[in-house]
Amino acid sequence: MNKSLFRLCLTAAVAFIAGTIFMPMGLVLMSKLERPGRYQQKKEAYSFFYRTMNELFEGTYNPEEGSVSPDALETFKKYGPRLGGKCRLFISDDESGYFDGIAFFPSGDCFSVVVLRINDDRMVLKSFYPLDWEEFWMRVMPRTENDSKRLQ
Prior knowledge:
By secondary structure, the protein is α+β, with helices and mostly antiparallel strands. Helix content is 55%, strand content 22%. The protein folds into two domains: 1-34; 36-151, Roll (Nuclear Transport Factor 2, Chain: A), CATH 3.10.450. The chain is built from five helices and four strands; from the N terminus they run αααββββαα. A four-stranded antiparallel beta sheet has the order 1-2-3-4. α1 (3-34) crosses α2 (36-58).
């Protein structure tokens, strides 16, 4: 193999390895730079939700604050004792000021969650209702002919 062909192969291999390593990091950084305010808003929504859930589980939430809608508060009172005191929230990246997601609890329950930003300084847990896991799963997974027969 001549020297120039060897250098070309070596350069191509190094470039491929460097691209494989640094490309994912670059994509993450670009997504944060593209919409820097959105990334911060999403972090604030997560923080608000977890702080509010802790207050609700510990019994320190003050209803006069108004950061939880009456419907969401009623749902939490109904299901709260069996949820396990912890959860994991996944927010989909929708539009500014509106955060829609799913909260999973150790009890196996999953809840649909909507957090709204109101007047740029306040957030509200607008919606908190249980999801039927089987129904949710069937909407996510592609249907086959056998599924249709089984559901009938």
